[in-house]
Structure formats: structure tokens, C-alpha cells
Write a structure and sequence with these properties.
Layout: H1 2-11, H2 13-33, E1 37-47, H3 53-63, H4 79-86, H5 89-96, E2 99-102, E3 105-108, H6 109-116, H7 119-123, H8 140-157, E4 158-164, E5 169-176, H9 179-201, H10 203-236, H11 247-280, E6 283-288, E7 296-297, H12 301-332
Antiparallel strand pairs: 1-5, 1-6, 1-7, 2-3, 4-5
């Protein structure tokens, strides 16, 4: 039986060769007409505050006075959270709404995207999208378009992965038909992610710092008023001999001492809070960033021809084998 199939295939060898040549031509044509794509790669690492240490002891001291300066580190944002954040709609849309110069023209990245991917050309036949510009006030149409673009980017263009578990190195890759757009987009994306990430990580420390600053200003104002009242009371009591006449002065002295002690403690905690804020602010270090010209991602004509030849030969052989199987089955029936 095997010899029969070999003989059958040999008999149709010219047809198999013809099919293979046809697929070679198709592969070369595909290589000619396919768009050249560019990949922009950016690698970075996030350095954060480690829990414990001297700052933890400072936080313990401050807590004795009823203040939380945020000395303990939060694990809300893990490496996986950062990966998800880079693919989130909010961060990507914020990056697309940044301005960049591409092909000599400065415009919003989302406008460049629509132009490069020729999406606006398809709008010409639709009255619903005619004249739509992201320079205008945001509307339902803008939200719909940006949502579609975000879905297209995360499914086909954007790749975010953890390069090394030990070193926590994250690689951000974006594929585009325009190398300048690819470079600008990954840079704007990492900037927007950094803003959101840092704002989240320092939210508690900023809130504590603002509270302490307001409290310090309030106590300082009360202290100034109490000192002025004390000075007036001393001036009035200069010729008074009886102790009862100096009662108001004694009360004001005690109030000034209390406010002064409060103010000193608040200032101490305020300085600790400033140190905490600096310590809790994560540092995003860029290791490698995309440099023009970017590497082209396009299949070569030789590779396309070889793949076409292999695919054409494989499909034609399969076709003739199944054809003979079908004929043999009919003959036996």
C-alpha cells in the first residue's frame, strides 16, 4: 500500500511542483506588499522603600503622638499590578492624549495613530465620524473610538512582560507601522504609568504631610495670639502687687508654654513626614530605551519563498493522499 501511494505521488509530481511554485510566488508577493513594522522596546525597574529600618522606628515614635506618617510599606502594587497598570485603559488613553512630533508634525498621539493606521480614511464614507477630532471637547463618540483603539493596542500591538523575576526587570514593547510613533508611545506610556503609580504609593504620606502642615500653621497662629495677649497682660500688671491681679498673666503663660510644646512636637513629626514622603516615592529607572532607527520587523522575500514552497508542497501532497484514499474507498465499496 505504501508503494502505491509513493507511485501515485510520483505520477503527480509535476502538479505538486506546480502547486509549490505557486505558493512560492504567493509568498514573495506577500513579502513585497506586507507593511514594514517597527518594534520599540523599553526596559525598566521599579525601586521602592523596603519595610522596617530606621524609618519604621520613627513611625513608631510619631504614632505615640497620634500621627501616622506611613512608615510601613504597602504591597498593593506588586510587579503583576504594574504589568496590568501598563495595559490599563486609563494609562494608555492618557499616553495617547499627549503631544509628540512625528514626521515633522506635532499633534496628539491619538491623532497620529488614526493617521498612521489610516483609520480616518475609512471614516470618509461614514457621516457619523466625519470631522471627529480629539482636539474637540470629549464626547460619547470620542469615548467609543478611544475604547476601540485601546482594545486594538493591547491585543495586537502592546506587550508587557517581566523579564527577570530576580531583578524585577519589566520589558515594554510596542509594534507600529511608524518607528517614531512606536518610540514616542512607549516613552509617554511609561511616564503616565509613573505618575499614577507614584501618586498611589505616596497618597497616604501626602495626606499626612498636609494634615501636619495645616496643624502646624494653626497651632503657630494660636501661639502668636497667646504671646501677644501675654505681653499685654504683663504691661497691665507692671504696678499690680496682689497675686490675684496677676492671675490672667499666669494663665496666659501656661497657655503659651502648652502651645509652644505642641508646636515643637508637630514640627518634629512634620519633618519625619517629609522624610517618609521622600522614602516612599518609588524611583522608576529606565534601563534601555528605544533608539532610532528601530529594528524592522518584516519577513524577507527568501524566507517567504521558502515557507511558501514548504506550505505548497505539504498541502499538495496531503491533497493527493486524501484523493487516493477517497478513490480507494469508493473502489472497495
Amino acid at each position: 500500500k505504501l508503494s502505491d501511494y509513493k507511485a501515485y505521488l510520483f505520477k503527480n509530481k509535476f502538479r505538486i511542483i506546480g502547486f509549490s511554485f505557486l505558493f512560492v510566488v504567493l509568498g514573495v508577493v506577500y513579502a513585497f506588499v506586507s507593511d514594514t513594522k517597527y518594534t520599540a522596546d523599553l526596559t525598566f525597574v521599579v525601586e521602592e522603600e523596603s519595610s522596617g529600618g530606621s524609618l519604621g522606628s520613627m513611625s513608631g515614635i510619631a504614632s505615640q503622638f497620634g500621627f501616622d506618617i506611613g512608615g510601613s510599606s504597602s504591597a498593593t502594587f506588586s510587579q503583576q499590578n504594574i504589568l496590568e497598570l501598563l495595559s490599563s485603559r486609563g494609562v494608555i488613553e492618557s499616553a495617547l492624549m499627549q503631544r509628540a512630533k512625528i514626521n515633522g508634525k506635532t499633534d496628539l498621539l491619538i491623532e497620529h495613530y488614526l493617521q498612521i493606521d489610516k483609520i480616518k480614511d475609512t471614516w470618509a464614507a461614514s457621516d457619523d465620524f466625519k470631522g471627529v477630532s480629539f482636539h474637540d471637547k470629549s464626547s460619547f463618540i470620542h469615548d467609543s473610538i478611544s475604547g476601540i483603539i485601546w482594545q486594538e493596542i493591547i491585543e495586537n500591538n502592546l506587550t508587557v512582560e517581566l523579564k527577570s523575576d530576580e531583578a524585577n526587570i519589566i520589558t515594554l514593547s510596542y509594534i507600529s507601522l511608524n518607528q517614531e510613533f512606536a518610540k514616542e508611545f512607549v516613552e509617554k506610556l511609561i511616564n503616565e504609568m509613573s505618575k499614577m503609580y507614584i501618586a498611589h504609593q505616596t497618597a497616604q504620606a501626602n495626606k499626612t504631610l498636609d494634615f501636619l502642615q495645616d496643624r502646624a500653621d494653626s497651632v503657630f497662629s494660636e501661639l502668636i495670639i497667646a504671646e501677644q495677649q501675654l505681653a499685654k497682660a504683663k504691661d497691665i500688671n507692671q504696678r499690680i502687687i496682689k497675686v490675684t491681679g496677676r492671675l490672667k498673666e499666669l494663665q496666659l503663660m501656661r497657655e503659651v508654654e502648652v502651645l509652644n510644646a505642641m508646636y515643637l512636637e508637630i514640627i518634629k513629626n512634620l519633618e519625619l513626614s517629609k522624610i517618609t514622603l521622600l522614602n516612599k516615592t518609588p524611583i522608576i529607572n529606565i534601563i534601555d530605551e528605544p533608539i532610532l532607527p528601530l529594528e524592522e520587523d518584516k519577513i524577507s522575500k527568501i524566507v517567504a519563498g521558502l515557507l511558501g514552497s514548504f506550505l505548497g508542497g505539504f498541502l499538495s501532497v496531503c491533497f493527493f493522499i486524501f484523493r487516493k484514499l477517497f478513490k480507494d474507498a469508493l473502489a472497495e465499496a
